[in-house]
Amino acid sequence: MNLLQKIKSTQPGWFTPENQKFFGDISYSAVTIGGKPYLIGETYGWSDMFGRPKIIQFYAKGVDPVTFVLDGLVQPEGGGSQFFPSREAVIEYLEFINAVSHGN
Length: 104
Hints:
Distance between the termini: 32 Å
Structural class: alpha+beta
Largest sheet: 4 strands, antiparallel
Strand content: 25-35%
Order of helices and strands: HHEEEEH
């Protein structure tokens, strides 16, 4: 069973079509960076509220490495949006915070 399948098996309600539609999620992937697993979501995430155009955004949620239960959204320190412009930008940020937390 791969990482994404493990995450989905612990929280099947998160990945239902109804939940995906409510949050505007398009797809999910999972990565491990510095030994910590993360769920990466591709979403519209209410980007079109208040007359703004609908855009694709990406987010990351931490995942407990033992239970595979989702933690909270990864948010940049000092504030800012939890949404990123691309999957690559999410991974780059996760690699950065991993390096900082390990003193690199």
